[in-house]
Design a protein that fits this description.
- The complex is a heterodimer of chains A (344) and B (270).
- Chain A contains 13 helices and two strands, in the order E-E-H-H-H-H-H-H-H-H-H-H-H-H-H.
- In chain A, strand 1 and strand 2 form a beta hairpin.
- The longest helix of chain B is centred in the C-terminal third of the chain and has 18 residues.
- Chain B has 270 residues and is of the alpha/beta class.
- Classes of the chains: A mainly alpha (344), B alpha/beta (270).
- At the A-B interface, strand 2, helix 8 and helix 9 of A face helix 2, strand 6 and helix 3 of B.
């Protein structure tokens, strides 16, 4: 911790240097992967070409490939990853439970059911599917919050209710898939895996907008989050409106996850794993918000690049890559929690 | 002292958990600048009363007055600049250091646009020094002894900078030496800075020793209050705790010393 001062304004703040360094390093790496991802592909470009195209120079083909094909996808990876990372970090701290991430508490399953419903029964596509997923994710989160509420929300209850609601929603999704025609079932399956393939500006804009509003909101609410960690009574004693602060944080986290899921499908494990990696890098025992967002962006950018290139020219959806990387990590986390007798 | 002039008071206060009434039409005035100790048997409502006084529980009836104003109508953040409280068995986040824990006591004085001022740094340093925790500032709270941990939490309440402090059983689960250490600290804070301290204690003898004002509760009501020497009698102990005891003057302090009358067979003396 160092104190930062702005002498003219009489303003000062405390800064955790290690958290700031981790955030900066993850962002720089994510940016490097991002630029690289704009260069590689079936039509390879040099980094110089990419930079020229981004600045409006270079030849027309290069400009077209970079700005309309690869740029939205690369940006989507960064933004969706950051949204999932931040969402998971807030939920894990709020619930004091490393399993409390949006994919575990039902946001992704709700979005998936609504999206598959829209694709299979309504024949919807494009923006309509995105909107349906957004509504589904939000509704599932409200249902989980409502069912977990008992004069307050405890972490374990939230996770257990979330697992239950997820099971019901997933069953609904499976049922819809068995009723679907092959073509629609395949479209639904691709959406369900979570993919950044073919992302256009239509999917990038909502995530960018959500992050622009919700990151500052999360940082303002983080002050209350720090006191909520001391327990409800202590937080109330310090003048925090506990229910309002917790509701606000829950809403921010769930909206981030729902928007990210609507744009890219229910990409597994990023929200769960990114905060845990960030926490270990920062060497803090509590989850840090901004490092988690930065690590989430890096994680998804890397996973998408791996998915695009590892079996080229065939592409793996990014959701498969994150699941392959994330599942072993989740198992490790669970085994460790068992050994030390706590889910921390 | 009347409820209108006391720094903190309850008027006809009723408190309940769900539908279970715990405190019943209770009136109480906390004297300014004194140490008030609330005692009573388990489940008599003493901790509930303290939570009610600290606006952690919304009253079912009656009001809590902070400097004469209804505490429920004051902004909770403003209350937090005047009244600090230490809950029973508070939980520190894993791995948090003493300095970071104590710094969180500054929350009511901060805003999102003014996250950390020199006044915050001064208050935290003063709280660490007053509790003798300045040498342990960078240690994780979960590596401390029980007494040190409790001192860290008291430092948090001190950093909050309020004239009124409510503490719910701050000595529970501490051995006798650490109990005395914590109570001595609170007595010093009261004497040196004139802070009004209200605490719930289990140990009647320590309560008699440290209280200026003793409040004895039974079944959600106050059965006696006043100076320990004036209110603690064998009859009161029988009434409040259902215990046959005799009361002697403490040979060290002159305050009442309560000794239970033996009723079970005693181990043989050699």
């Amino acid at each position: 911790m160092v104190t930062v001062r702005v002498p003219g304004l009489g303003w000062s703040a405390r800064l955790d240097l290690r958290a700031a360094a981790v955030t900066a390093a993850a962002l720089v790496l994510a940016l490097a992967v991002f630029v690289w991802s704009l260069a590689v592909g079936d039509f390879p470009l040099s980094v110089g070409d990419v930079v020229a195209a981004l600045l409006g120079g270079g030849d027309r083909a290069g400009r077209m490939i970079v700005t309309t094909l690869r740029l939205p996808r690369g940006l989507a990876a960064l933004l969706v990853g950051a949204a999932f990372g931040l969402s998971g970090a807030i939920l894990q701290r709020l619930a004091r439970n490393p399993l409390a991430s949006p994919d575990v508490i039902g946001v992704n399953a709700g979005a998936a059911l609504a999206a598959v419903f829209a694709i299979v029964l309504l024949g919807a596509g494009g923006t309509d599917v995105t909107l349906a997923a957004l509504a589904g994710g939000g509704a599932a989160a409200l249902a989980v919050a409502g069912l977990s509420w008992r004069g307050g929300i405890t972490g374990y209850r939230l996770v257990l209710v979330g697992v239950g609601v997820t099971a019901v929603l997933t069953a609904g999704t499976s049922y819809l898939l068995t009723r679907a025609r092959v073509y629609e079932a395949q479209r639904a399956m691709i959406w369900l895996t979570g993919s950044l393939n073919g992302r256009t500006w239509d999917q990038v804009r909502p995530v960018a907008l959500a992050l622009a509003v919700l990151v500052p909101a999360a940082l303002v609410l983080a002050r209350s989050l720090r006191t909520l960690e001391l327990g409800d009574d202590a937080a109330r004693g310090l003048g925090v409106a506990v229910d309002r602060a917790r509701g606000g944080l829950f809403a921010v986290a769930v909206t981030l996850a729902a928007v990210a899921t609507a744009s890219a499908g229910p990409i597994a494990f990023v929200a769960l794993v990114a905060p845990q990696i960030a926490r270990r890098l920062v060497r803090a025992r509590t989850v840090a918000l901004l490092p988690s967002a930065a690590v989430g962006a890096l994680l998804l950018a890397v996973a998408d690049l791996v998915g695009r290139r590892i079996l080229a020219p065939t592409e793996l959806p990014v959701g498969i890559v994150t699941a392959v990387l994330g599942a072993p990590y989740l198992l490790y986390l669970l085994a460790r929690a068992n050994r030390i007798g706590a889910a921390g | 002292m009347t409820t209108a002039t006391a720094p903190l008071a309850a008027e006809d206060l009723s408190l309940a958990y769900d539908d279970r009434p715990v405190v019943d039409r209770l009136s109480l005035a906390i004297p300014a600048g004194a140490v008030t100790v609330i005692v009573g048997a388990n489940a008599c409502g003493k901790s509930t009363l303290l939570r009610g006084l600290g606006r952690l529980l919304r009253p079912r009836g009656g009001t809590v007055l902070l400097d004469g104003a209804d505490i429920g109508r004051l902004p909770t953040r403003e209350v937090a600049t005047r009244l600090g409280l230490l809950p029973q068995q508070p939980v520190a986040p894993d791995g948090i250091t003493v300095a970071d824990l104590v710094a969180r006591g500054r929350h009511p004085h901060q805003r999102w646009f003014r996250p950390w001022s020199p006044a915050d740094a001064d208050a935290v340093a003063a709280a660490l020094a007053a509790t003798g925790m300045d040498g342990l500032a960078d240690r994780p709270v979960d590596e401390l002894s029980g007494g040190q941990r409790q001192r860290a939490w008291i430092a948090l309440a001190l950093a909050q900078g309020t004239d009124l402090m409510l503490l719910d059983e701050p000595t529970t689960f501490l051995d006798l030496a650490h109990q005395v250490e914590v109570l001595d600290l609170l007595a010093r804070l009261n004497a040196a800075e004139g802070r009004t301290v209200v605490l719930v204690l289990h140990d009647l003898n320590l309560a008699c020793r440290y209280a200026h004002h003793l409040v004895a509760m039974r079944a959600g009501r106050v059965v006696a209050e006043g100076r320990p020497a004036d209110v603690v009698t064998a009859a009161l102990v029988a009434d409040v705790f259902g215990l046959a005891a005799e009361v002697f003057p403490d040979p060290l302090t002159g305050t009442p010393l309560v000794l239970p009358v033996p009723s079970a067979p005693l181990p043989p003396t050699p």
